From TrEMBL:
TM stretches of this protein: none
Protein name as it appears in the record: Uncharacterized protein, isoform A
CDD domains for this protein: RHOD_HSP67B2
Domain Rhodanese: 40-138
Lineage of producing organism: Eukaryota, Metazoa, Ecdysozoa, Arthropoda, Hexapoda
Amino acid sequence: MDLLGPAGKSVVIQLANRWKFVLRSINTMATYEQVKDVPNHPDVYLIDVRRREELQQTGFIPASINIPLDELDKALNLDGNAFKNKYKRSKPEKQSRIIFTCRSGNRVLEAEKIAKSQGYSNVVIYKGSWNEWAQKEGL
């Protein structure tokens, strides 16, 4: 006997998706303080997956590299020289620490999936993303 039925299952799935961040391991999310400290750690990559137009409107987090989400898969497949020429930074190694950021913390989930599917193993998200950064920085 199915007590929930199709509509009930849909509600359960929606609630689970809304709580996805609560259930994440703390090791898979970066804090504001960690992101603020990125300039002191040149081995850490802070990748902003917003569109360039968004960055022009709002600004960017210092030490971040802009790779729009729709370019991320291709960018991570570039050879080292092509990546450096395009993004002005060496390409991350598969074990490099990568922190993804966006505007509100939603696109980072897709970015994380893309990177992990390509074998990047030390990937975290900044859930607060630009909105939290700007608020804490008084922007």
